[in-house]
Design goal:
Helix content: 55-70%
Structural class: mainly alpha
Number of helices: 22
Distance between the termini: 20 Å
Radius of gyration: 25 Å
Order of helices and strands: HHHHHHHHHHHHHHHHHHHHHH
Strand content: under 5%
């Protein structure tokens, strides 16, 4: 589902001049209220001003006379004197700072302070971030839908935050091609908020890494590591270094194996430990250390997180021991999946079916109906390749060479 309509408008909107006083608040409130009531420009302007004047007000390209604004507010029963009174000081900037440092409690606190007495975009940006963190994607999409309708009233940094949030949603849900398409509209854009700039560089890095666009990933990694980025979290730097090393691990594991020796749990920042543990395991798996990867996941009780369940079944599938396969299948089948786990669940089911079925055509049928149709929409940097290789091997063993060539051709072009 398209979350930002007319995406091509983003660049021109980022480059336009807007008023950074109460005018933009009037624009947001009036346009949001009009759309909420399903009123046309003609209906809203009738008896007050011309349609073209109201249109310019909504687009925040003129400074309107107070008398007109008061008249419009009266028409839709809004309190003019409340404008701007429910804005949290530096709320969006604080939200980005908290997100950069994984301080989700700080974002929760901002969310609980929201006053919906009268509309403003800042509160909706905080709401969207809150829903994103909670993986309440239906509510997230509704918040984005509201902001999308008034995007031409947003200040430049707030428009950047809107696109950032949508890209973050696509990254969280493994839709890296969509994330890449949206990031093109933020490429080379510099915002006043340094945290926003850093977070956008992170997105470029993650998306480049997952899509195999390594020059893109490297360029943005180097941007983040510049000495001028004083205050950029050291923990983030450590995680991104591991992510880069995962690229080398397949061919040069001996060079990077020292980086994955220490596997202690850091009680103070468990989220950070999970990120580090995840990428260390990816490095081990790319170095074909399947047994030790399996044992580390189980010993550290990491299989309470679906990302590690996916790595566990991948590791077990490559271990030539039925006891490991059975244990992995049991863990996968007992895991409490959520609605938001849909893509990883499909990947895990593929490995479970592969390890439990003696009929290859059942596995292939599963791929044809569940994973192959979305192979360009949803992608996992490690596991997607595994099911693609399985399907390609099946085609070759079945002497379906033409289909195999077509599959490979599409894979390279994708």
């Amino acid at each position: 589902m398209e979350m930002i309509t007319k995406l091509e408008k983003i660049k021109p909107l980022l480059q336009r001049k807007v008023f950074n006083n109460k005018t933009y608040l009037y624009s947001q409130i009036i346009k949001n209220e009009r759309l909420k009531r399903n009123m046309t420009l003609e209906e809203m302007a009738k008896g007050i001003c011309s349609v073209s004047y109201l249109c310019k007000v909504e687009k925040n390209v003129i400074e309107p006379e107070e008398s007109y604004i008061r008249a419009i507010f009266e028409k839709v029963n809004l309190d003019y004197d409340k404008v701007g009174k429910n804005i949290m000081e530096d709320g969006v900037k604080k939200m980005l700072h908290h997100y950069l440092n994984r301080n989700y409690a700080g974002i929760e606190e901002l969310y609980l302070r929201i006053d919906d007495g009268i509309f403003n975009s800042f509160n909706h940006l905080v709401k969207a971030m809150h829903f994103l963190i909670k993986k309440e994607y239906r509510e997230f999409r509704e918040a984005i839908k509201t902001l999308d309708k008034i995007k031409d009233t947003l200040l430049r940094d707030d428009l950047g935050v809107l696109v950032f949030l949508v890209v973050e949603y696509y990254i969280q849900t493994y839709q890296f091609l969509e994330a890449y398409e949206h990031l093109q509209y933020l490429h080379d854009e510099e915002f006043e908020c340094r945290e926003l700039n850093w977070l956008i560089h992170e997105q470029h890095f993650r998306v480049g890494l997952n899509l195999g666009r390594y020059p893109m990933a490297m360029n943005h990694y180097l941007e983040l590591m510049k000495d001028i980025n004083i205050g950029y979290p050291m923990k983030k730097q450590a995680v991104f270094k591991l992510m880069l090393l995962s690229l080398k691990a397949e061919e040069y594991f001996e060079e990077v194996k020292e980086e994955v020796q220490d596997f202690r749990v850091e009680d103070e920042d468990y989220d950070y430990f999970l990120e580090v543990a995840y990428w260390k395991l990816v490095i081990l798996l790319k170095g074909k250390n399947y047994l030790i990867s399996f044992e580390r996941i189980v010993e550290n009780n990491l299989h309470q997180d679906i990302r590690f369940v996916a790595l566990l079944v991948y590791a077990a599938d490559n271990i030539n021991d039925e006891s490991y396969k059975k244990r992995a299948v049991k863990i996968a089948e007992e895991f409490a999946y959520q609605e938001t786990d849909a893509f990883l669940y499909k990947l895990i089911r593929f490995f479970v079916l592969k390890m439990t079925s003696d009929k290859p055509h059942l596995v292939v049928d599963y791929l044809k109906y569940n994973l192959l149709p979305v192979r360009y929409t949803y992608r996992h940097h490690l596991l997607s390749r595994a099911y693609e290789e399985y399907y390609l091997s099946y085609l070759c063993k079945s002497s379906k060479y033409k289909e195999a060539v077509n599959f490979l051709t599409k894979q390279k072009s994708g």
